Amino acid sequence: AMSRYPISLDRPVGNSEDSHFGDLLPDSGAESPAIGAAQEMLRTRITKVLKTLSYREREIIKLRYGLGDGYSYTLEEVGHIFKVTRERIRQIEAKAVRKLQQPSRSAELSGFLD
């Protein structure tokens, strides 16, 4: 029969001092190993595809799409970093995106984008 009284998650399990009820609960925030592996594969493939771009194109794409620190920089901010106008950044980004859309490169990511 289920207990109707609350039990502390810090309460020891059995005679053990190192094991608590809270340790037995599944972590709903943790991603499944399969999802983690898929994300790692995607990261690896994105890195591989980005390596086909020039250094500047690659860095601009990473900054604009938040691929480094998770923050997506504005054209203005990226322009300051590279000491060029935002219009120049827009042009370089557009050229890089066109390159990434070429079948030889986009095929590398096909399984993830369907």
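(the above was protein one; protein two follows)
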Amino acid sequence: MDGKKPTQNPSKKIYDATDLKNFEQSIAFHRLQQILKDIVLAVQGIKIPPGVLDPNIVTRINGNTISSAALFIPVVEPIENFTPHVEQILSILKRLNDIIDETPRFEGPTRFGNIAYRSWHDKVEAELPTLTSEFLKFNDNNNDANGENHSKLIGEATYYLANSFGSKMRLDYGTGHELSFVAFLGGLMHFKFIAPTGLELLTIFSKYYDLARRLILVYNLEPAGSHGVWGLDDHFHLIYILGASQFCEDKFAPSVRTALSKQTILGHRLSNLYVNAVAFIFKLKSGPFHEHSPIISDIHTNVLLWVKVRQGLMKMYMVEVFGKFPVIQHFWFGEYLYPWKHAQTKLALPVIQRDREDGEEEKEEDREREEREKLFDPTRSAGVIKAMKMPTKSKSNIPMTAAPWANSNRFRDSPFTKR
């Protein structure tokens, strides 16, 4: 979520880990929490219809190699009965996918990511304001009840969308970019631009994840803020929560214990985001699953109910995304969609901005990478499993508080310990 910000765009407010306390008191934080809960509940028990997810994205081709040709043929099926604004979002995602075709990767050696990705970003940044202005226009059924300035709302929403596809500077993609897409959709939902059904949300997220993963594959994007094998996933987190919620209240859902089986993956990879995400792991990685993805493996060894999987992953999200400075420092705050104001008093929260010397941006990137390595904690997996096995206390089974290990001593037992 980097880049220069023009007038009316959100601005940086989090400069240090101590700013996280202010973030947790902000309107932005509480609004994002509620949006996440609304989205997760909206998709509960719903399947993704055929023709939405691209099978090429999660299919291994030629053994362990990835054929670039296959990545340039996304599956696009016409879907009827969607509202015009939802169709426009899908049209925007399709256009961004087309820009990949127009921006082939450079074939020379690269150290981290392919620099053609920066050209893709440049083209997207040039087109997005026009694309978003089309579906953000007010009409008789989409009035701004709060009287917010139309052009500023467009600018802020466009900013979050532009930052949903990885870092142009760092050539990486991670959970912060995934959060930015939630902020884009959530802003439209909060101000009544769209009121998507669960099916519409799943279709939008499916197209978004296919686009994000295609960018990762084509331009070889690095994981942003990855914990290595001790992270839930190299790039994503929310996709697993959405998929787990899809299986909740679904009497035909596979058991948690069998979700990693070949039969389940083949049967559900194009209708469920959790299984689809697991299929993507199998496409990219070989070897024993419990070695390269131990946390997911632990989930399917120790947890019995999908509602518990969803509950634990939501708690983990609060810690690993909202609660981690290397991730949340890149989330910027605007005047309308996600204000940096106290949720109770509505007063502006303090911002402590230090002056930067020449080369400070590059030094900060190095510090970020070092900080990500420090986040490695193999004992965290045990906390995830324990959270999933705790009694449910909320009616919706969707916790919006920090995970049990957030303010306690580290768990000392092995991440593979059964409970």
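Reviewer note on protein two: The chain has 16 helices and two strands.
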